[in-house]
Amino acid sequence: MDTAGENSRSALGAKDMATAKAKNVALPAILDLDALEGVRDTLADAIEQGVTSVSGADVERISTNALFLLMSAAESARRNSTEFAVTDASPSMLAAIERLGLGESFAGLLKG
Length: 112
Hints:
CATH topology: Transcription Regulator spoIIAA
Strand content: 15-25%
CATH superfamily: STAS domain
Number of strands: 6
Radius of gyration: 16 Å
Number of helices: 5
Helix content: 55-70%
CATH architecture: 2-Layer Sandwich
Structural class: alpha/beta
Distance between the termini: 46 Å
Largest sheet: 4 strands, parallel
């Protein structure tokens, strides 16, 4: 019996499944209190599926609570042992992060 071969195929299969379940989430242009509930639910579902990439490219306005939601989602992903990143943050989003002094908290989350 080739148990080593079977084990590596099982590990590879698990990795492929995680990649197949990767989720991309695009944030809306206006991410205020009215939009938070829907974004929260979308992020929770994405994190349950595995690797999550959140695009901030379209963000024109973002509330403080929305930034805290993203930090909380990143922590949930960490606890689930999965990857979480914010990609292509718009200039407005980056300005809000800096203005609120959250640059250090987002340093490990921002990609691209």
